[in-house]
Amino acid sequence: MICHQAVKQESPAIQRLAALAKDAAVPVAPLPYRIPDFVFFSHATHLAAKVKCESCHGEVWQVDLAKPAVPPKMMGCVNCHKASGAKMECTACHELSQ
Questions:
Q1: Which of 59, 65, 81, 87 keeps 20 to 30 A from 26, CA to CA?
Q2: What is the DSSP letter of 6?
Q3: d(CA 63, CA 72)
């Protein structure tokens, strides 16, 4: 609920979650993005490169349930890296030591 203390507070779904008792079971929504174990992704690296959250996640502050704005597939990442001039080496995403 940390994000929703400032974002989308007027949403009925968010208000219902906020009203739950602290020890109540919170319904778990499916993760909008799942990447394979052999893929390394760092939000910190992308934030440092000034990639905006909405580039991948869409306008999450305007929806009740986050859904991928960009399919979490290799070509989506490759196309974005090409367009932004980011690293294109395989090890940018596929190095186990990261």
A1: 59
A2: T
A3: 19
Q: Which sign, positive or negative, has the C-alpha torsion 49, 43, 63, 11?
A: negative
Within 8 A by CB and 6+ apart from 63, the residues are 8
pLDDT at position 59 is: 84
pLDDT band at 58 (very low <50, low <70, confident <90, very high): confident
* pLDDT, tens digit, 9 for 90 and up, residues 18-36: 777 555 666 666 777 788 8
Tokens found for residue 20: 């739950």
What is the torsion angle, in degrees rounded to the nearest 10, for the CA atoms of residue 95, residue 37, residue 73 and residue 50?
-60
pTM of the model: 0.61
What's the CA gap between 68 and 15, in Å, rounded?
Answer: 23
